[in-house]
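Q: I'm writing up a methods section and want to include an example of the input and output format. Could you take the sequence below and give the corresponding predicted structure tokens, formatted cleanly so I can copy it straight into the document?
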Amino acid sequence: MSNKKQFTIDSRDFYEKGFNFFHDGKFYRYSCVVDNDLELRPKPANTVRGATLYNVGMMYRDPVDKKVHLTVITQCDYKLNVPSFMLTSFLPKAAKGWIGDI
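A: Here is the clean output for your methods example:
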């Protein structure tokens, strides 16, 4: 998966390993990061390789209303450098202790 460059943020590339399966009328998908040391797929120029820590999803068609339902939970590290002024401005006071002295 790739995200194009926007404003001053370089494009991001996510290279994952995963598996899909179908069971009892539901489609499931699980994926996670490929170790960056493997470099199985070269990243494009001017691109930062992010990491998908985990990505799980389920999709099914409701037998009553025939609508397709999708549930996805994803945790990504976009490898963004967040300026310290943003951390001090937007983090709750209790969370600021987690990141040490800013």
